[in-house]
């Protein structure tokens, strides 16, 4: 990736020029530690900005479960100069903009989009929220009630229940396996002191990245960020408890619900972000279960007609990774669907992909990556995780495309053999399984071992 | 809206220039009746295209319920030159593109996105799907099973159950009130002959619009469309059974489910697309329940802490319209939440908006509209509905913004008084309501009448 470095009065700019994708990415680091990234898209009418912090649910101990997500809610409740939630949101929504946030296991992102004329106002609100939230006692109590309704809503969605249960099996007893929102019990027990202590550790410029994409100039973004974060300090954060390996053996769980379908999630542990196996895994996922030309879609849906929804998904974290296969099926067809999924897994492990599939998967992943980068948000976010994880030099989209181009059929088969094994696997069923004796975990384990052998 | 017309060898181009939004829209009509719209966005890496037909679930009689949606599935199963679903999808996903479709009550849309070099291939696949599907007997039977799983999945989602029940109350006994997918019973009974007869009536260039946005030139789009649709004829369609007025009186339904939350949907009937009341309704919706600065969000969530999800939504059809207010609440708080929602409705009816709210709502709706148009899909789709409904002259984004700018506080209060009345209202509750005697429909009706009076 071509790269140039220049120095202005107070910061060093690094410019990444990615000819393939057409974007130019500018990167600076402010004296207070904050990374600033911009992607000028001069033809756009809008600007998107995301202020991200290296903190999420995995940084909590069991008692604190849910505090990172509670803080993400609370910063919308008011700041010293914008004392109500209406005061926080109105400057952005009042110009037709969007203001939102999300919490993952490893990151908290505050983001917005506005017509380009209002970019300074958006940055002002984002920095104000994370630097000066009021965090009133009554707001903490109030927001806990709202989050309990958020948890209740997810408990009423069978696919979310299945996904959460699979994560818990993939990371037993570890914060990475918990619902990001915490449980109703842990949320009820959180206090304002928990909130303030947690923020004190993690909320500061040393732990953050501002990324902006749209009709802006990098020098302006740096100047605004510098002015707005001048009083902001600290936030060195701390290292989380490392991910632990999955205990060997197949782990199966059945959760009874009186509903129409059974939601299936089969999961395996893989590798962290930027592990070399990530690239063959991306191609494996594409040809196995991502999209309408994938093996699972063609076999389980098109050939056998067993599911409307069937697909596979990847997630890469700083020291862990997961791949899941998910489907919703008729309770009478659970065994047929499981056998069909296991059969596709066994085939790719035993025989690897065809040469045509390797080409397809490479084109598919490459094309989706480039189409995705047209979105201002994705362009803004591309370098955020890398900067928070201290990656150097930064990987550009072209670097990733080059790595994907080098993947061969044998690499794909090798990662399938390494990760898609029964001893590295969990399975969750959510639905009317209580009255079906053949859907007991021991029997499902036995069948799956046979089908995958 | 500035407009110029020019004629090439076989078609007349109309060019709409919308300076405010920055897009130029080209419109042609082919000799076979097909409308062709393009929005050149020369800086984009991709092209999006949508081929839309004026047909959806409202064009079905009760026995045919679900056939429009079944056809939307079946065209992916193979064509004369692409005999399998893999053959249909692979040309698009094999270059990293997206191919998808959706069916609404009034329209069926086939759409895709590809890197711009592959636009001809995308158009080739889209026209092939709608012009030459194989519609094999076994594909019909097979796809019915998949759609029944799609219906089962929606029956397991409480918010979808509530939304469908509210639509049924808003359009009692009318195809507009039915699930677009039909019921499991009607889908099971559909035959290949139903499919072919329905397609024969509605699938043809006289009933369609092709819209393309991205790195393309209009003359090329017209030439491709003309070549690809040369053999396509007919499809005049027919008029649907008109929407019927909502029988006067408040209609309440409680649906029991053993779940954590109660999903509430309150609905009213409003006006069709392009009725002058649409513009004050857009502002009413914004200030009442759209976004985090709206009255319902600030009162029900921020003030009272009763719901994580609370919002209001508009839908405009060719001869009908609806507004709904939706929330998920703790079963113990249903009455409190309903009273709070009713109180906000009564306030806006009795007192209208504040001058500040009128400004806010106008900026909010204007800004969201402009941000939305950055998306290739929205830009591509802007004129599709209008062309299918025969609107002339076409309304540009600027025309809509001008209409919104003219809305006054008294217009907003007037539409609130006209449509947000108990005699034009339905209410659905889905959740653990069976064991709560105070949640009976008669009692809920009585309370709501009191709160809204």
Automatic annotation (TrEMBL), chains A, B:
Domain Peptidase M16 C-terminal: from-to ranges: 190-359
Family annotation (PROSITE patterns): INSULINASE
GO biological process, one term: proteolysis
Xref: Pfam families: Peptidase_M16, Peptidase_M16_C
InterPro entries: Metalloenz_LuxS/M16, MPP/UQCRC_Complex, Pept_M16_N, Pept_M16_Zn_BS, Peptidase_M16_C
UniProt domain Peptidase M16 N-terminal: residue ranges: 45-183
GO MF term set: metal ion binding; metalloendopeptidase activity
Gene3D superfamilies recorded: Metalloenzyme, LuxS/M16 peptidase-like (3.30.830.10)
PANTHER family given in the database record: METALLOPROTEASE, MITOCHONDRIAL-PROCESSING PEPTIDASE SUBUNIT ALPHA
Family per similarity comment: Belongs to the peptidase M16 family.
Protein name as it appears in the record: Peptidase M16
Source organism of the structure: Ardenticatena maritima
